[in-house]
TrEMBL record:
One of its GO terms (molecular function) is hydro-lyase activity. Belongs to the enoyl-CoA hydratase/isomerase family. The keyword Transmembrane helix does not apply. The lineage of its organism: Bacteria, Pseudomonadati, Pseudomonadota, Alphaproteobacteria, Sphingomonadales. The keyword Lyase applies. InterPro entries: ClpP/crotonase-like_dom_sf (IPR029045), Enoyl-CoA_hyd/isom_CS (IPR018376), Enoyl-CoA_hydra/iso (IPR001753), Enoyl-CoA_hydra_C (IPR014748). This is Enoyl-CoA hydratase. GO terms for biological process: fatty acid beta-oxidation. It comes from the Bacteria. Keywords: Lyase. PROSITE patterns: ENOYL_COA_HYDRATASE. It comes from Croceibacterium mercuriale. It holds the Pfam family ECH_1.
Length: 260
């Protein structure tokens, strides 16, 4: 069903599966990959039947970073004129209100690590490696690495990783708070899909609100975050799904969600 060149897109019930598909370049994130990811995420967001997405990589990498050959050919003026790299945040983070999972199967370096950290949660193969090696190329992370890694692992470890370019293995990434779960490599997609299906089966409005509220924790002062949480909680009290969920609990039956 895929009309894409650099990614593959499939659906499994209410789960969209996006596979980065440039294994010969370790899934380097070229501008063509970005444009196709933007299209795939827009389709995912627009389809009411799709409730959760999983992004993974073909071959031995999740993504080994932005495409270095493209980066090498882009001038400061070109980057600045186009507000280069802003579309990752606007189209893969801000525009996507439904949850998505990064299933990290191997190298997640530079922009690949940053893409994984844009996801709502990361499930990693035990063979995965995470790092921000941009310093070795004479540059720094440009798709959120300095901000999201510091929030995830704390300033001390983020500073060490970004200044040295050292990679973390999956166990360290989990211990540091980047990764939600580590699973054996051959069970990665099963684990990611099982989690995605679980989320896809939850009441859709509560899922949207939960995602919004948890992300606010990274952006808002505590008092403002607590207000947002309460307002979303108040909002959900008016939904049919909240009435159904509580009635089903009391009546000892399975709830049927309507998404309203
Ligand atoms: C373009 C890449 C690439 C990348 C790998 N390749 N990473 N091409 N951009 N980021 C290509 C190689 O050139 C090679 O192609 C093929 O993929 C296989 O890679 P090898 O290096 O031969 O594989 P291996 O020896 O297994 O080493 C794996 C690796 C290494 C350790 C992951 O490839 C590596 O260090 N890659 C670069 C990682 C990196 O610096 N990422 C940050 C990029 S900057 P050929 O044609 O030679 O066979 C970045 C900035 C983001 O992400 C924010 C601003 C945009």
């Amino acid at each position: 069903m895929s009309e894409y060149r650099t990614i593959k897109v499939a659906t499994d019930g209410g789960v969209t599966i996006v596979t980065l598909n440039r294994p010969e370049a370790l899934n380097a994130l070229s501008s063509a990959v970005l444009e196709e990811l933007i299209a795939a995420f827009a389709a995912f967001q627009a389809d009411d039947g799709q409730r959760c997405a999983v992004v993974t990589g073909e071959g031995k990498a999740f993504a080994a970073g932005a495409d270095i050959k493209e980066l090498a050919a882009t001038s400061a003026a070109q980057f600045y004129a186009a507000d280069g790299l802003s579309r990752w945040q606007s189209h893969l983070v801000r525009a996507v209100r439904k949850p998505w999972i990064a299933a990290v199967n191997g190298f997640a370096l530079g922009g690949g690590c940053e893409l994984a950290m844009m996801a709502d949660l990361i499930i990693a193969a035990d063979t995965a490696r995470f790092g921000q090696p941009e310093i070795k190329l004479g540059t720094i992370p440009g798709m959120g690495g300095t901000q999201r890694l510091a929030r995830a692992v704390g300033q001390a470890r983020a500073m060490e990783l970004i200044l040295t370019g050292r990679m973390m293995d999956a166990a360290e990434a989990q211990g540091a708070g980047v990764v939600a779960r580590v699973v054996p490599a051959d069970g990665l997609m099963d684990a990611a899909l099982e989690t995605a299906r679980t989320i896809a089966a939850m009441p859709p409005l509560a899922v949207l609100a939960a995602k919004e509220a948890v992300h606010a924790a990274a952006n808002l002062p505590l008092e403002d975050g607590l207000v947002l949480e309460r307002r979303l909680f108040h909002l959900l009290a008016g939904t049919e799904d909240k009435a159904e969920g509580m009635a089903a609990f009391i009546e000892k039956r399975t709830a049927e969600w309507k998404g309203r």
